[in-house]
Design goal:
The chain has 116 residues and is mainly alpha-helical. It is built from seven helices and no strands. The radius of gyration is 23 Å and the shape is extended. The termini are far apart.
């Protein structure tokens, strides 16, 4: 119903669900440039990994009707006394991870120092 969606939201949904593939919103650029997203998302921040989510659920809460839908919570206590070995740390070195937001912050900090 119209009362639940803004005109731009209705336009986006109609474009995504259009039966005729020629008229359907199908490429990332078409979807990204749609007015509904232009009002909501800064894609520059999103692509750089610096967009702050509007909501982050509590990681300790169980968001389900009941435990029978998801099973019992894991027994995290069994990992409290686990020691990380040098061999394990060495095996992790093969997996390179670069935080885009930390990298961006470092670049900004360096540029600020240069411009002083």
């Amino acid at each position: 119903p119209d009362r639940y969606f803004t005109p731009s939201a209705r336009s986006l949904l109609k474009g995504l669900m259009c039966k005729n593939p020629i008229n359907r919103l199908s490429t990332f650029i078409e979807i990204k440039n749609h007015p509904w997203f232009a009002e909501k998302i800064d894609f520059g921040l999103l692509e750089s990994g610096n967009l702050i989510p509007p909501f982050i659920p509590n990681q300790d809460e169980i968001n389900a009707d009941s435990l029978r839908h998801i099973g019992k919570p894991p027994n995290d206590g069994k990992y409290e006394n686990v020691k990380i070995t040098k061999t394990f740390e060495k095996s992790l070195s093969k997996f390179k991870y670069i935080s885009k937001s930390a990298q961006q912050k470092e670049i900004v900090d360096v540029l600020k120092k240069i411009n002083k």
